């Protein structure tokens, strides 16, 4: 049973606030992914949990015990480093046996444990090689193997597959998931690749500038981003955003993109929900994922007319760019739906999947239609 | 491996090989001459024009290791025949080996000087490299207040030519009784080499990713264990390179050895030329002494050559 809890942890590098009042609880056997841009403090947070960095304030609990003042070697966590950190002067076997030797494991047991883990990871044939003679994928397996031999309380992984090529990354992603299901150790995994995060996580933690933005199941973070940062960071292609004005119109609501002549018709319930959060005439931003944008080739009631601009054929579907007012929006369509650039199209939005954000604060208004 | 070469590259390659050969010839010539002289009979060492082809003999080495005196008259046939082969070579040169009353051969000063050189150079190298490595590790891995100033200070100890402080050092050493002791020279050479060792090792340790130690710490090792199990093996190349440089410096040091020592702790460099002064100069003996003196550095460097080559490029090339 290993729960990891962070209570209001803070960390500065000089005047720079790297970890800003982070609180989070990772449950036993949970797989949590830290997702964020480069430099947002993911690695630092992970290193703080492992004890490789001291924190300025707050509490870190591993298995219920406060550990912020204990030393690294006493925390009993495993860490997979971004650059693997395999020792070049040791063979694969010795690299994997290294953590076992720290606790003076009997020789025979070292042998069997390393071989068992190596078999699980399918690197049994590489045990006598040096790290320099391994491919990227094998290095990564060895690095994970070194973390697994010890049965640690928790696994901390810092972009373990970030340096692999796309195909291998996909394979390793599946393998990591399988391993986690088999081993069930509490895992915190760092990445800046949102697809990886969606694929692996029980829960995603989105970080930005040292602050936790949103914590939730991948579907939830995807469907209901709490602010503009999360909205635009999670999901590919990125969520459409546009500055809009809101008006009452013929018994319904009208959402008009800045600079556009026509607006999107919305149910009147929108007006009430916006009013409940603050003045309706403050600057608002509309957010809508490309798959919630519908295009038709014929005029439709309440649809906004425009023309297709760029079409990206992606095989299974197309991404179609078009302009409305000052904004460029994108829609996801069936492959070949829009025959070519310059074709007139009519745009409607899926109201239930549209989001409104307060432009000034970036926070969602929490509209539900 | 064989990359495709253009005609221009082939010509340039040949030119550079020629240049290397010429440089090699120039640098190896004195070493060849010393070696040749070490195996010459005395009368061929100073001929004009120089003798290049001769029958090599071992007599210079016999003379190097024994105490001798001039023969006033040739040895009797009986004495000559009774002498071992090596002693005959001395008789042939017009000298005789000095024996004690009980007939034991008296050694010259060379073996003990050579031993002194070994003791002083090895000990000071071990000290300079180990202290340098630990210091460099500290500077490389921990926040040290005024780190740059400290490092500059350490480097600055090398800016003054050491000979400048020879007289004050001599007076201080005499005051504390360190002159003509092994310890005195060891301290001196360690101090010379330490700044160099710290700087060189810092470069090497900086290149070892910090994550290696982090990984060891996470795996349950203490920092001390991580240092010995990870940092030292990873820094082996740097340690080897540093050790060679320190050893060469200590081994070849002349000025301080000349001033600070005279008998007990005297090293080979001041001793070898001092033989010129006693009696008629015998250049073959000096050459033999020099030849043997060159060997340890050559052997040491040869043993560490792989590390050394890697070390040179390792420290020099930065990503
Ligand atoms: N030892 C340090 N001293 C000073 N600043 C540091 C130190 N380590 C990291 N930083 C800074 O702290 C910020 C967060 O670093 P961190 O490594 O945690 O980012 P990250 O989210 O892991 O980024 P990446 O995705 O690039 O690995 C960065 O701006 C970095 O420059
Ligand atoms: Mg990082």
TrEMBL record, chain A:
Record-level GO BP terms: carbohydrate transport
GO cellular component terms attached to this protein's record: ATP-binding cassette (ABC) transporter complex, substrate-binding subunit-containing
Molecular functions (GO terms): ABC-type transporter activity; ATP binding; ATP hydrolysis activity
CDD domains, alphabetized: ABC_MalK_N (cd03301)
Pfam families in the record: ABC_tran, OB_MalK
Keyword ATP-binding belongs to the record: yes
Residue ranges of domain ABC transporter in the record: 4-234
Keyword Transport: yes
Domain of life (superkingdom): Bacteria
Keywords: ATP-binding, Nucleotide-binding, Transport
InterPro entries: AAA+_ATPase, ABC_transporter-like_ATP-bd, ABC_transporter-like_CS, ABC_transpr_MalK-like, ABC_transpr_MalK/UgpC-like, Mo/tungstate-bd_C_term_dom, NA-bd_OB-fold, OB_MalK-like
Family: Belongs to the ABC transporter superfamily.
Name recorded for this polypeptide: ABC transporter ATP-binding protein
Species classification: Bacteria, Pseudomonadati, Pseudomonadota, Alphaproteobacteria, Rhodobacterales
TrEMBL record, chain B:
GO CC terms in record: plasma membrane
Transmembrane segments: 15-39, 118-139, 151-171, 183-205, 226-251, 283-304
Gene3D superfamilies with a match to the protein in the record: MetI-like
Membrane-topology descriptor: Multi-pass membrane protein
Gene Ontology BP term (one): transmembrane transport
SUPFAM superfamilies per record: MetI-like (SSF161098)
Family in the record: Belongs to the binding-protein-dependent transport system permease family.
Protein name, entry field: Carbohydrate ABC transporter permease
Organism lineage: Bacteria, Pseudomonadati, Pseudomonadota, Alphaproteobacteria, Rhodobacterales
């Amino acid at each position: 049973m290993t729960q990891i809890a962070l209570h209001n942890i803070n960390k500065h590098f000089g005047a720079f606030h790297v970890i800003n009042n982070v609180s989070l609880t990772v449950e036993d056997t949970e797989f949590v992914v830290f997702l964020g841009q480069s430099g947002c403090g993911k690695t630092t947070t992970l290193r703080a949990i492992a004890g490789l960095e001291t924190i300025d304030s707050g509490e870190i609990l591993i298995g219920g015990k406060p550990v912020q003042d204990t030393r690294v070697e006493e925390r009993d966590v495993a860490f997979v480093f971004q650059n693997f950190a395999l020792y070049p002067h040791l063979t694969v076997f010795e690299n994997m046996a290294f953590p076992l030797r720290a606790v003076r494991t009997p020789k025979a047991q070292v042998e069997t444990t390393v071989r068992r883990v190596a078999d699980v990871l399918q690197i049994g044939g590489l045990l006598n090689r040096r790290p320099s003679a391994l491919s990227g994928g094998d290095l990564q397996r060895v690095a994970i193997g070194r973390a697994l031999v010890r049965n640690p309380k928790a696994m901390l992984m810092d972009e373990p597959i970030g340096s692999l090529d796309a195909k291998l990354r996909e394979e390793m992603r599946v393998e990591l998931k399988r391993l986690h299901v088999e081993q069930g150790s509490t895992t915190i995994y760092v990445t800046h690749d949102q697809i990886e995060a969606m694929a692996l996580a029980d829960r995603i933690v989105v970080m930005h500038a040292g602050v936790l933005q949103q914590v939730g199941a991948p579907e939830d973070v995807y469907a209901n981003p709490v602010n503009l940062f999360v909205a635009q960071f999670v999901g590919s292609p990125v969520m459409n955003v546009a500055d809009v004005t809101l008006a009452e119109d013929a018994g319904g609501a009208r959402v008009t993109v800045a600079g556009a002549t026509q607006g999107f018709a919305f149910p009147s319930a929108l007006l009430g929900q916006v009013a409940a959060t603050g003045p309706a005439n403050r600057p608002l931003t509309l957010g809508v994922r490309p798959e919630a944008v519908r295009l038709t080739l014929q005029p439709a009631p309440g649809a906004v007319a425009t023309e297709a601009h760029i079409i990206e054929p992606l095989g299974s579907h197309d991404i179609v760019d078009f302009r409305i007012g000052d904004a460029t929006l994108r829609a996801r369509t069936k492959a070949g739906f829009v025959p070519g650039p310059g074709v007139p199209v009519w745009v409607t939005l899926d109201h239930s999947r549209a989001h409104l954000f307060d432009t000034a604060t970036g926070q969602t208004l929490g509209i539900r239609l | 491996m064989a990359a495709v070469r253009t005609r221009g590259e082939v010509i340039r390659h040949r030119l550079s090989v020629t240049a290397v050969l010429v440089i090699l010839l120039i640098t190896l010539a004195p070493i060849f001459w010393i070696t040749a002289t070490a195996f010459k009979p005395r009368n061929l060492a100073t001929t004009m024009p120089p003798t290049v082809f001769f029958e090599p003999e071992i007599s210079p080495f016999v003379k190097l290791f024994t105490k001798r005196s001039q023969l006033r008259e040739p040895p009797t046939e009986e004495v000559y025949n009774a002498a071992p082969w090596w002693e005959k070579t001395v008789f042939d040169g017009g000298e005789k080996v000095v024996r004690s009353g009980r007939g034991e051969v008296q050694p010259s000063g060379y073996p003990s000087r050579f031993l002194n050189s070994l003791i002083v150079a090895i000990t000071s190298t071990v000290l300079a490299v180990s202290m340098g490595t630990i210091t460099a590790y500290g500077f490389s891995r921990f926040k040290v207040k005024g780190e740059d100033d400290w490092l500059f200070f350490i480097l600055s100890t090398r800016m003054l030519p050491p000979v400048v402080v020879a007289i004050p050092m001599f007076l201080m050493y005499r005051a504390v009784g360190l002159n003509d002791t092994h310890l005195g020279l060891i301290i001196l050479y360690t101090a010379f080499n330490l700044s160099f060792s710290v700087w060189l090792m810092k470069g090497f340790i900086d290149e070892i990713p910090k994550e290696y130690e982090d990984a060891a710490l996470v795996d349950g090792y203490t920092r001390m264990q991580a240092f010995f199990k990870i940092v030292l093996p990873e820094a082996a190349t740097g340690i080897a390179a540093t050790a060679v440089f320190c050893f060469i410096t200590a081994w070849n040091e002349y000025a301080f050895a000349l001033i600070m020592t005279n008998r007990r702790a005297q090293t080979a460099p001041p001793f070898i030329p001092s033989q010129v002064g006693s009696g008629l100069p015998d250049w073959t003996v000096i050459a033999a002494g020099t030849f043997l003196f060159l060997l340890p550095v050559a052997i040491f460097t040869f043993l560490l050559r792989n590390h050394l080559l890697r070390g040179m490029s390792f420290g020099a090339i930065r990503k």
